[in-house]
Design brief:
The structure is a homodimer of 405-residue chains. Chain A contains 15 helices and 14 strands. Chain A has 405 residues and is of the alpha/beta class. Chain A has three domains: 76 residues, Orthogonal Bundle (Arc Repressor Mutant, subunit A), CATH 1.10.10; 140 residues, ATPase, nucleotide binding domain (Nucleotidyltransferase, domain 5), CATH 3.30.420.40; 169 residues, Nucleotidyltransferase, domain 5. In chain A, a hairpin with a 2-residue loop joins strand 11 and strand 12. Chains A and B meet through helix 1, strand 11, helix 10 and helix 13 of A and helix 1, strand 11, helix 10 and helix 13 of B. The structure holds a DNA duplex (30 and 30 nucleotides).
Chain lengths: 405, 405
DNA sequence: TTACTTTGTCAATTAAATGAACAATATAAT
DNA sequence: ATTATATTGTTCATTTAATTGACAAAGTAA
C-alpha cells in the first residue's frame, strides 16, 4: 500500500469509512460484526461509522439475520434504491444507458440507435436529453454521478479530450467539458475497455481472483482494459491495454497507427469481414452472399458454414497470439473476452483460443490460467462506466451527499 | 490508494512513519519542517516521529541547514553508515554483491566469477561464504537484510522456488529456503529485471516520472521489469514483463517456451551472435574471425565493422518492435534499457531504436515518451536487490531494529 | 433450564495528530 | 545597527478516532 500523503484523523476516518462501505457493497448485506471482522476493526468502531452512514441515509438496516449462534444480528445494506448512478456506453451506431443503485443492482436499461451521419453536437445533445429524462423521470431516487464510456484511448489535455484514434469521429471534441457543463453532478469519462474490466472486478463478489484482470474488447477494434491490484492501469499516456496495436508480424502490413502487422489488422471484426468478402469474391463456396451483413455472418458461423467458420477460427487464432503476448507481458490472473467477436460463437472462440494457448504457453502457465467469455447479464461497458461513477461517490460519500440534499 | 484492512492508531503511525522515512531517504537530508510539508502533516507530528527514530538510531541529526529565511533548521539523515543491506546478483558466469546503507549510499562492491560446471550446491555455499564474510568483516555497521536477484521468472510454490525458464540450471532448486536458513536476517528473492526496474525508481530523486516504468534487460534473454505506481508488477504467475516471449511473428520459428517468433529469438545477444556467425560462415567480410568472443564482437561494433554493425542495428530494430508492443500494452512513462546489448554501443542502440519508434508510434505518443539507456554507476540489478531489501526494512523499521540489538 | 456465544452499544480510556504559544534565530528592510 | 518579519523546532493542552471493557439482549447447545 503506497501512500503519498500522511494520514491525519480525518483521513483515517475517511479511509476506514470507504473500506467499510466497499465491504458492505461486496457483501450486499451483512452485520456490523461481520464488517468489523472483514476490516480488522472493532465492533464499536463499526457502530460509529455505520451510525453516521445510517443518519445520512446511505445505509439502511434491513432484516434480522439469523446466524449460527448468539445474539441476532442486524442486516445492513447500501440504499441503492435511493442513491443511484447512470452509466453510458457509446459506439458508432448506438448508445446505451444503465441506471444502477450505489450497491450495484440494475434499475433501468435503455438503448438508442444513432442515425447515420448524425453530427457530434446533435448526438451529444440527444444523449444529454436521454440522460436528463432518465434522471427526472424517477422521483424516488437521486442520481449521484454519471459515467460515460467512450471507445478508444484518449489524451486528457487542458480539460479537453483528444482521441488518440478516431473511432467514432470525435477527434478533438471536448466531450468531458460538454457533459460536465450539462449536469451539476460529477461526470466521469472512461475508456470502454477499462470500464468493462472494472465491471468484471466491481460486480464480482470473489474479488481476489479478479484484482488482476484483463478484459479484451474484441469488436471492430481490439482493445483491452487492465486491472492491477484492483486499480485500472491507464498508462502514462492513457493508451495502456491497446493490444490491438501490438505487432504479431514485425514485417506485416502497415497500420494507420504507424506500426506494422498490428493485431487489429488480423482479428478485428472488420478484418474478419474483409477476409470473408475477399474469399467470396475469389469464388469460395458459402451460404453467404457477397453483401452479407454482420448478422448474416454470425448466423453463418453458427450454422457452421465452412468458409465463415474457417475464417472465424482464424480470427480466434490470431487473437490467441495477442493473448499470449498479453500474458507474457502483463500476466493477469484472469482474462475475460467480450464484445462482438465473443458473442458471435462463444464456444468456438473459447475452444480455438484454448487450443492455441495450450500450444503457445508453458504447461505450468497454461495450467494456472483463468480465461473466460464475458457472461454479464447487461452490457459490461455501460455497467463498468456506472460502477466507476458509483465508486467515485462511495469513496467519499459525505462530500457528495451533503452537497445539496 | 487501495486499503484492504482498516487503519487503527498503530497502523496510522506506522504508515506515517514509513512515509516520513521514505521522504527522508529520497531527499537524503532535510529538516523536520520540510518533511512536514512533504507529508502533509504538522511539524509537531514530525517531531514525535523523528524523535523515536533518532532514539532508535536509524535517523541522525547532522549539519545545520541554512535556508533562505527564518530559524536555522537541523538536517536529518538516515544512518546508512550504521544500518545497511546487501544486494546480490547472480548470472550464469558470475555473481556480484553490493553493500549499501539504508539511505542508498554504496559502501562496497564485489564480483566473483563462477567456475564453469560448478554445481548449484557448491555455488550457493560459495555465495553464502562471501555474504557472511562481507557481513562479519565490517564491525561498524549492522546488515539488516539481503536481497538476491536471480535471472528469469520463477514460481513460488510451498516455499520452494521453481524457475519457469531454466536460465542458470537451477530448475526446482529451493533457493529461497536455502538462503533463509543460512542467515538470521530477512532474505528476499527477486527477479533480476524487477530488481533493476525498482532500482531506477528507488535511487531516483524525481520519482514522479519513474513511478510507471519499464526496465528492459537486453542480454542473453530479453526480460523486463514493470513498475505501476511505484509497485512492481509481478503478475498472477510471476511472469509479468517476460517480453522476450511476446511474438513478433506469429508464424515465426518455434521457441522453447512453446510460442512462435518470440522476440528473444530475434534480438537477444545470443541471437545476434548466431546471426553474425552464420553470415561469417556464408563468407561475409568482417574483421571478426569465426570464433569471435563477445568482447571481440563489441569491439567490432564500436569500430564500425560493417557486418557487426549491421547485425547489431538489426537487433536494435527487433527490440524496438517489442518496445512498441510494450508501449501499446503497458504504456510506461519511462523506459530504461540495460544489460549487455545496451552496453555494447549505447548510442547506436538509442539512435536505431528511436528511429523505429518514431516510425511505429503515433506522433502524439512518441512526443511524450521517455526512453533512456541505463546509466547507473553500479550494476542496476544488484543495486535493485539491495534497494528492495532496504525497503522491506524501512517500511517497518522497529520490527527489525528492536529484534536483537 | 443452564451454560455458553455472539451482537450491538455505551462510557471510559488510550493513542495519535493537531493547535496555539513560545523561544530561538535566520533574512530583509529601514 | 536596528527593526520587522519569517521560519524552525518544541511543549503542552486539546481534539479526534479507535479501543477496551462491561453489559443487556438474544440466540444455540447441552
Amino acid at each position: 500500500m503506497s501512500v503519498t500523503s500522511g494520514i491525519n484523523h480525518a483521513k483515517q476516518l475517511k479511509l476506514n469509512r470507504a473500506l467499510v462501505i466497499d465491504s458492505l457493497r461486496r457483501q450486499q448485506c451483512c452485520s456490523r460484526a461481520e464488517l468489523a471482522r472483514m476490516a480488522n476493526l472493532k465492533r464499536a468502531t463499526i457502530t460509529n461509522i455505520i451510525g453516521e452512514l445510517i443518519d445520512s441515509g446511505l445505509v439502511v438496516e434491513t432484516e434480522i439475520l439469523n446466524g449460527t449462534k448468539g445474539h441476532r444480528s442486524i442486516g445492513l445494506r447500501i440504499n441503492g434504491h435511493r442513491y443511484q448512478v447512470i452509466g453510458v456506453m457509446v459506439t458508432r451506431t448506438s448508445y446505451s444507458l444503465v441506471r444502477i443503485g450505489l450497491s450495484g443492482e440494475v434499475y433501468e436499461v435503455q438503448s438508442q440507435s444513432i442515425p447515420p451521419h448524425l453530427g457530434v453536437d446533435e448526438l451529444i445533445l440527444d444523449m444529454e436529453r436521454s440522460i436528463k429524462h432518465m434522471i427526472e423521470e424517477n422521483h424516488e431516487s437521486r442520481i449521484m454521478a454519471i459515467g460515460v464510456a467512450v471507445p478508444g484511448p484518449y489524451l486528457q489535455r487542458e480539460g479537453e479530450v483528444v482521441f488518440v484514434t478516431n473511432r467514432i469521429g470525435w477527434d478533438g471534441f471536448p466531450i468531458s467539458a460538454r457533459f460536465q457543463d450539462a449536469f451539476d453532478i460529477p461526470v466521469l469519462l472512461v475508456n470502454d475497455a477499462n470500464a468493462a474490466a472494472y465491471a468484471q472486478y466491481w460486480f464480482s463478489s470473489e474479488d481476489d481472483t479478479r484484482r488482476n484482470l484483463a478484459y479484451i474488447v474484441a469488436g471492430q477494434g481490439i482493445g483491452c482494459g487492465l486491472l492491477f491490484d484492483g486499480e485500472l492501469v491507464q498508462g502514462a499516456m492513457g493508451i495502456a491495454g491497446e493490444i490491438g496495436h501490438t505487432s504479431i508480424d514485425y514485417n506485416g502490413p502497415k497500420c494507420e497507427c504507424g506500426n506494422r502487422g498490428c493485431l487489429e489488422l488480423y482479428c478485428s471484426s472488420l478484418a474478419l469481414e474483409k477476409r470473408v468478402r475477399q474469399r467470396l469474391q475469389e469464388g469460395a463456396s458459402s451460404c453467404l452472399g457477397e453483401n452479407f451483413s454482420t448478422q448474416e455472418l454470425t448466423a453463418a458461423i453458427r450454422a457452421q458454414d465452412p468458409l465463415a467458420l474457417e475464417e472465424y477460427r482464424k480470427n480466434c487464432e490470431y487473437l490467441a497470439v495477442g493473448i499470449v503476448s498479453l500474458i507474457n507481458q502483463f500476466d493477469p490472473g484472469t482474462i475475460v473476452i467480450g464484445d462482438q467477436l465473443a458473442q458471435m460463437a462463444p464456444k468456438v472462440l473459447m475452444d480455438t483460443i484454448c487450443r492455441q494457448l495450450k500450444d503457445r504457453l508453458r504447461p505450468a502457465i497454461w495450467a494456472e490460467l483463468h480465461i473466460e467469455i464475458d457472461t454479464m447479464e447487461h452490457n459490461s461497458i455501460a455497467m463498468g462506466a456506472a460502477a466507476m461513477a458509483a465508486r467515485s461517490i462511495l469513496q467519499d460519500p459525505f462530500g457528495y451527499l451533503n452537497a445539496e440534499l
